[in-house]
Design a protein that fits this description.
- This protein is globular.
- By secondary structure, the protein is of the alpha/beta class.
- The chain contains 25 helices and twelve strands.
- The chain has a seven-stranded parallel β-sheet with strand order 3-2-1-4-5-6-7, with helices on one face. It has a five-stranded parallel β-sheet with strand order 10-9-8-11-12.
- It folds into four domains: 156 residues, Tetratricopeptide repeat domain (Serine Threonine Protein Phosphatase 5, Tetratricopeptide repeat), CATH 1.25.40; 72 residues, no CATH class; 168 residues, Rossmann fold (3-Layer(aba) Sandwich); 176 residues, Rossmann fold, CATH 3.40.50.
- Helix 5 runs parallel beside helix 7 and helix 8 crosses helix 9.
């Protein structure tokens, strides 16, 4: 029988090797042998929390407190689990006790601040954050840098932004019990911040705002505030350009953290391969380390120059872009995870353009132009954008319909009933809102022997959507969930579906193009804003304008009618298959259009 030290060392080794269950067995053996083994309770609780087993983690940390009633670490651990369980009153109380036991530790102060922010006690949260910095300024700043880079935290520690960022996590899990209050609070806090001279300017909120029923003016106000913050932070490095472009090839630089297995890389690959090298010199500025995906390899292999910026300081990254003397710098990121919008705020190139990755405005002064089309940004909504608008002729989309394809699986292998009508909705969970889910349930109720095929993005999603379906009179068994699979398998399996249903405020992107490339008709209902009109843009370019519906009742009625009409679905599927030869997938034409735009910008 191994001794205590040996058993503990084995547990640590199992954790390092990625064998959590075996590590838990070791920790459980230790605490059974000695219920006052504080370190074993500590490690066990942390591991359980990482595995998402929060109730078990709470129990472990409470046993740790039983063993060491005045341990600041034990109380701090428990406070973190209570935060994750969204029991904010308890978290605030427990974090306060941790501070009493060790006033020099910054993490309990920080946890108390988070709990206060989530209770919307914003002034109290600010006080806790100031105390955290006072307790350990250097450690606290390192902690902020590490966590802010993931997009999960506003680095300026604005409690209002923290509330909005973290509360969105509930929506991402399809927990809509606070949905309408959250949307109202989001808009109100943005408006109040502007009115009182304390605008909210957290970059992570931009992407989230597109997935909510907010006025496009509110989204622009938020984007302008974020852009202003970024430009202020980079003001000492910002420059203006007086030099005229030299003759010769136009230098175009593409900046992204997503030159890897990511929708942006998958869609944009033809652009890098087809640029006319007699007229353009193509630079890739990658903000992430290379992966071994075919898209990442293709993009890097097609570029004239690849600049790996991952791990560089901002100053060094900016210097690389500027010394390359880029004429047109294209943002293929937007304010998403891993982005470096400071490059654009500091004016890294004379002409700066946003394209493809972010369907919204970047905010005043950040980029000069937004590449779009007349469907995604109609004239009636131009006030929602701070950039000059460059509309491509038919659609802004670019993509190759010929993707790697695995063998067609059986419906049974995917958990789909053999004879059912399968409505496909493989959207990220954050795009699904209560309103469109209600419509989907109406469709299931009206179409006998039909199922909704969903992508299981997060563990809580299945439970929450099952509850929501039941509350609308639909058995949770009519929701079929599939996990993410490699792209070739994904492109093969979606061919088992009959019809695809688009989301509302933030439409499907590659989700829609993948369905059309597979010959699956897609139904959409546009809403205000670029993100809410992307489906309409794709369907119009595919020659399927009749699948764009002006309102949800029309969308619902069409889905029900098609669900009941086998012959009608078959005819529509044939038209969808013909879309592979449509303008939507004419990526050569799209590259030519983009190059014509670049010529105009370079000559201006």
């Amino acid at each position: 029988m191994a001794g205590r030290a040996e058993q503990f060392a084995r547990a640590l080794a199992f954790e390092d090797e990625g064998r959590p269950e075996e590590a838990l067995e070791c920790y459980s053996f230790l605490v059974e042998a000695d219920p006052r083994d504080a370190d074993a309770w500590h490690n066990r609780g942390l591991l359980l929390a990482r595995l998402g087993r929060l109730d078990d983690a709470e129990e472990s940390h409470r046993r740790y407190i039983d063993a060491c009633p005045e341990s600041a670490r034990a109380h701090g651990n428990l406070a973190d689990v209570l935060l994750a369980l969204q029991r904010y009153h308890e978290a605030l109380t427990v974090a306060g006790r941790a501070v009493q036991f060790d006033p020099t530790a910054f993490l309990p102060h920080f946890s108390a601040g988070l709990a206060a922010a989530m209770l919307m006690r914003f002034e109290q949260a600010e006080k806790w954050f100031r105390l955290a910095e006072r307790a350990d300024a250097a450690g606290f700043q390192r902690f902020l840098v590490r966590n802010a880079s993931s997009g999960a935290l506003d680095r300026d520690l604005d409690p209002r932004a923290i509330y909005l960022i973290r509360e969105f996590d509930r929506l991402e899990q399809c927990d809509w019990r606070n949905y309408h209050r959250y949307v109202e609070t989001f808009g109100r806090l943005i408006e109040e911040g502007l009115r009182t001279g304390r605008p909210i300017s957290a970059p992570p909120l931009l992407f989230r705002s597109l997935q909510l029923p907010l006025p496009i003016e509110t989204r622009r106000q938020l984007a302008d505030s974020v852009a202003q913050r970024l430009m202020l932070s980079t003001a000492p490095l910002r420059t203006s350009y007086t030099r005229r472009r030299q003759s010769g090839r136009i230098k175009v630089g593409y900046v992204s953290s997503d030159f890897r297995t990511h929708p942006t890389a998958i869609l944009s690959r033809p652009l890098f391969e087809l640029h006319d090298r007699s007229k353009f010199e193509v630079h890739v500025f990658s903000l992430s380390s290379p992966d071994d995906s075919p898209w990442g390899r293709a993009i890097r292999g097609a570029a004239d120059r690849v600049h790996e910026l991952a791990g560089l300081s901002f100053g060094d990254a900016l210097a690389q872009v500027r010394t390359s003397e880029i004429d047109i710098l294209v943002d293929l990121n937007g304010p998403t995870t891993g982005a470096l919008p400071e490059l654009f705020a500091a004016r890294a190139a004379p002409v700066q353009v946003s394209y493809l990755a972010y369907p919204g405005t970047s905010g005043a002064g950040l980029v000069d132009y937004l590449l779009c089309d007349a469907v995604c940004v109609p004239e009636s909504e131009e006030s929602g954008y701070s950039e000059a608008l460059l509309r491509l002729a038919e659609t802004f989309w670019i993509g190759d319909p010929d993707m790697p394809l695995a063998s067609l699986p059986s419906r049974a292998s995917q958990g789909l009933p053999e004879a059912a009508v399968v409505f496909l909705a493989h959207h990220p969970s954050r795009k699904i809102c209560p309103e469109v889910f209600s419509v989907w349930m109406q469709i299931l109720a009206a179409v006998p022997n039909s199922v909704l095929w969903l992508l299981e993005d997060l563990p809580a999603m299945r439970h929450n959507l099952g509850r929501e379906a039941e509350s609308r009179g639909i058995s949770p068994h009519r929701l079929v969930f599939s996990s993410r699979v490699p792209n070739a398998e994904h492109h093969a399996r979606i061919r088992l579906a009959d019809l695809a249903l688009d989301t509302l405020w933030y439409n499907g992107g590659t989700t829609t193009l993948d369905a059309l490339a597979a010959g699956i008709p897609v139904l959409t209902c546009p809403t205000p804003g670029f993100a809410g009109r992307m489906g309409a843009s794709a369907l119009r370019a595919a020659g399927l304008e009749d699948l764009v519906f002006p309102n949800l009742p029309a969308y619902t009625a069409a889905a029900i009618a098609l669900g009941k009409n086998n012959d009608g679905r078959a005819r529509l599927s044939e038209r969808a298959r013909e879309a592979r030869a449509s303008s939507l997938f004419d990526f050569r034409r799209r590259v030519s259009e983009l190059e014509a735009v670049y010529h105009r910008l370079a000559a201006a």
